[in-house]
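Researcher: Good morning. I'm working through a list of sequences from a screen, and I'd like to move beyond sequence-only analysis. For each chain I'm collecting a predicted structure so we can compare shapes side by side. This is the next one on the list. No need for commentary yet; just the structure.
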Amino acid sequence: MSTTKLPNTTSLRPDFIWGVSTSSFQIEGATREDGRGLSIWDIHCQSGAIKNRDTGDVACDHYHRYREDVGLMKALGVQAYRFSVAWPRVLPQGWGSANEAGLAFYDRLIDELLAAEIEPWLCLYHWDLPQALEERGGWLNPESTAWFADYTALAAKRFGDRVKRFATFNEPSIFTLFGRSLGKRDCGSEDELHRTIHHVNLAHGAAVDVLRASVAGASIGCIHNRQPCRPASGNEADAAAAARLDVYWNDAFPDPQCRGAYPPSMRTAIEPHMKAGDLARICRPVDWFGLNHYSPVYVKANADSMLGYDFGDKPAGAPLTPIDWPIDPEAFRQTLESVHARYGLPIYVLENGYGSFDEPDQTGAVNDSGRIEFLKAYIEAMNAAASSGVDVRGYFIWSLLDNFEWDSGYSTRFGLTYVDYASLRRIPKSSFGWYTELIKARHSS
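Model: Good morning. Structure tokens for this chain:
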């Protein structure tokens, strides 16, 4: 039992959903099994650019151990699990012939979840674009909207009888800002950035229409990474850089998707890439707003960089996680309130978590008390937002498992469950037990 008190959750809805999240490339492994095609992240890992030259070839081996991982979720008591489908696992070339073995894997996973009374939340895209499509221009190619619509149609037809919760994209602002496909780290030009943003927004709208037509009772959203962009100093140049980044990071996708217009400061740059009717094609009715939130980012001006910004120093003395991300639950509350005011949609927090370097002690236990304190503070901030009228309906921790954390490889751990990568043994951390207690307490109240 954890010695940390449970958070105050009295303002949350009686039907509030507690869950956990993962993504395909970060946990599945089996990157060359059963007909899966290569993704941009397989190629990026082959370049040796990842810390410790890590790759996703094995990751957590979830492809073979998914039953064990669903068992962990059942032990946690979560009501929902957000995962992503690996596009190259089900369509190795990104379009054309489907890979039956890949589709069958997700059938097995979904059926296992439903048998455990855990609702599957399926995210169509969490950054692992098929490499075959990258070689055709990736999201810079106007045909990417049709590619994504066809992929969505395949997923809807195969899984829509059992899955009703669908997210189109995870964090489109991140994979566009930091490389047009993220696995390719060069950002190109501002013109390429604007074309990519518009094509991804069009792909979102097309996918919503496909899901509406194909899945009875579908509940659809997009998952947006929203962090306050704050100037690293008091000078005007840093303030201007932070304001500009804030638009691209926080508004470039939800504004056209949910409000039918790009932010005013972007419009001149986006308009050359737009056709008549594009905004109507993007702004399709969605049912909820997916929010990923971790911490504010601090910005300084850099005239030599694209968009004129760089990341600056955090405030002296600010509390930080072990991976140097600011701990600021008040920023989380303010973000929830701003999303509620700006978009007027039910909110599901689909990622929030604490990065660290956990290791087992001499007894084999993993005590991650820092994560517990972080989660408690952030859940209480969410409760405060709900008490002020914010319609927040769910909270999913990132992540169920320690996993491949992109350019950090396996050096950073976000999981409620420790993964010993040598043996692939799963060890629930103290935060796992704490979250279980919280969910039980909510169910019994």
